[in-house]
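Students often ask why we bother predicting the structure of a whole assembly rather than each chain alone. The short answer is interfaces. A chain on its own may look different once its partners are present, and contacts between molecules only exist in the joint model. In this exercise we take two input lines together and write out one structure for the complete complex. Read the inputs first and try to guess which parts will touch.
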Amino acid sequence: MTTLHLAVDRSAGIPIHRQIYEGLRRAILDGRLRPGQQVPSTRALAAELEVSRLPVLTAYEQLLHECYLDGRAGSGTFVSAALPDDLLRSPVPPSARSASSTPPRVRDYGGLGPFRTSLPALDQFPRAQWARLVARHARALTHAEMMYGDPAGVVSLRIAIAEHLRAARAVRCEVEQVLVVSGSQSALRLAAAVLLAPGDRVAMEEPGYPGARAALRAGGAEVVPVPVDEQGLRVASLRRRGRRVRAVYVTPSHQYPLGMSMTAARRLALLDWAFRQEAWVLEDDYDSEYRYVSRPLGALQGMDAHERVIYIGTFSKVLFPAMRVGYLVVPPSLWQRFVDARAAIDLFSPTLYQLALAEFLREGHFARHLRRMRGVYLKRRAALLSGLARHCGDRLTVYNADAGLHVAVMLSPGLDDTAVVQRMAKRGLTAAALSTCYAEPLRRSGLLLGFGGSTERRLLEATRTLGEILRA
Amino acid sequence: MTTLHLAVDRSAGIPIHRQIYEGLRRAILDGRLRPGQQVPSTRALAAELEVSRLPVLTAYEQLLHECYLDGRAGSGTFVSAALPDDLLRSPVPPSARSASSTPPRVRDYGGLGPFRTSLPALDQFPRAQWARLVARHARALTHAEMMYGDPAGVVSLRIAIAEHLRAARAVRCEVEQVLVVSGSQSALRLAAAVLLAPGDRVAMEEPGYPGARAALRAGGAEVVPVPVDEQGLRVASLRRRGRRVRAVYVTPSHQYPLGMSMTAARRLALLDWAFRQEAWVLEDDYDSEYRYVSRPLGALQGMDAHERVIYIGTFSKVLFPAMRVGYLVVPPSLWQRFVDARAAIDLFSPTLYQLALAEFLREGHFARHLRRMRGVYLKRRAALLSGLARHCGDRLTVYNADAGLHVAVMLSPGLDDTAVVQRMAKRGLTAAALSTCYAEPLRRSGLLLGFGGSTERRLLEATRTLGEILRA
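Now the answer. The structure tokens for the assembled complex follow.
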């Protein structure tokens, strides 16, 4: 049996029969035991391994059960000849073999370096409090809470979201309009599925959020770029280009990527256009909670008298992205279609996080966290701006830093933003290139510099590095 | 100001300017302040409320900013005349106001009564162990684990799933083929998004799983029903009807709803058809873990030499549905398209549950739970079958009870299954009607009786009630 490398380890904390089962199965999968080959009798193997016969019998029984082994009455036990040949050419990959000893966790997807956009201050998140809520709800899950849930979301969370949106964002909503989804990306995808047929035209800010463009296109829609200026989406352009447009995607509170907020006049004009055109407005309010130079503006949705706005929000930017909780506020006329489409896509969101989050909001932790974060982000933003002024002022201009978790800067003529971003990546800095936010050839060269996820010191250091890169 | 019900509460923990802002905004929204109506001067209101003028100014500024108020130089401040009328007819609903006192939790969505299908034994789930893992991971979340994650899923979970599938289901897979999604419904939806264009034809078992039909149709595909018999999908019918069919949906381990498993001959014929046709096979292995009369069959995927099979599995039936974790095993040729489509739909699944689940599998809790559940379900199934024989034998015939968490029965001639299900619902029994699983007019009248989620005693009582209903 030495060829099988079979051995039991009594101190491993793994049942002996399981170790024997695993050892034999691996030997079969690795091809060290071949189809048709006889394996030792249970008695012989027990003697060789110096264990009792029971665990060996248990292991064999399982292997017989799973068709790895074949028992022939009176003539012993054999590796099953019926094993598909290909199974034998598919050994357990090395990565999987080492799994039990050193379990890999989550890799740093997209990078956590300074300037990463859409990265909140994870170091400031009240993790202990949150973990306590999660643990309490995990222990207390009722059978109903373990079962299939409402596609619209857990009611207590929907109530808490509606309260928050009415108070903080001047959104006009009843709890019956709030639909919980797994983030703003899935909210957009859902809206596209409900509102757009393949070939439909949908207008979008130019430059605009690439993730939104992808979500809208995924459903087969044709995306029509409409330029923005300092006042937000140019509604006059929309009127010209917007024939047969079914919907328009906007970020009125904090335009992505450039950062300005849409003026009241433009908002009214947009709503008027939507009403006349019978088009839908997709309002992505992705990080409106943070505004530094004037007070937060109410949502476009709250100004709409004709229920043409689908409002989209997320907890990814104010709590953390891996929670995967976002929401829509949907006009009553569209409600049932949204719920049905949501159920067809993935039924409902995991219940535990929804319960914990509802309590997090209800108990005031959320409001407190928001308030505290405003102070943290003000300081980080100030550090970034002063670092940029000191180290990069001759190579870039700050375009907008009024709100959110990133600053938009324009690069001096001759500097190509994608090349700069590549050079930054080599030095551990993860910024986004402004030009990638454009759909049309006419692009401005700039950077989106996130400041949410880095300390003031790291941001200052990073601006020094950026200055070196820009002058190189 | 008494008509405005405006008052400040210094002990509320809410900034005074915010309280004034809210009070005025609500007064406007509720119609107590009308468009064009003059509001008190900031000085007068400050005096009336016995606060300093600063918070009043702040509140007014915000309301002006948000266009609730209009300031006219030299003549005071007025409720904006431009406010849309409809805004005024949308008061805060009572349900939201009472939210903080009595938080509703999750309602019993779809019912937990005896005979509910797709309901595992929640009472047997090792909840304490699970909650311990969840709590531990919630406390230990790294920043990377709170950030955006891999659309394919957490690596440690994918490794654990690949190990499990190779060992228990003879699936041929590398970890690089395993994609974590939020359940079999989202897996199907994703497969449809990747493989099917609107107007494409997709074949499906008749009768078949209505949720799958909805997911396939949601992408605009035309669903072609192909009958099943005692050996599973009739591949000869598929050959006849299957021209221009891009994909076929099957449940080979445990046909939903009827319960038989597809014979080896049929499986080979189906794979051969798919290879020649260059069609894809969607194998939904939704509850293959439990088989009572013979050994579990390996997956169809493991027999396929030509990588035409997309394998779909879920933890909903073996752990609990509200966890929302399912998975696909995708041929390498399709991998990147699946990952991209997954990212476009909802980026990735919540990380915490994935981490906890990976450890649950790695530590052997999952395998132990499966083994223990086999015994539990054997007993519950036996109770159901003996109850049916005793109380309902003259009105129905057991069609199949070999596997899974439900038994398929055929009703005696003259008994309409949807009417029976309605009468059952009135007595607290939540079964599914077989006829609802058909797409074509020719339907058999029967019931799907879940036994996973009820104790033996409740199942026995329920069969007695069912007998009364059938004889009524």
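Check your guess against this: The radius of gyration of chain A is 29 Å.
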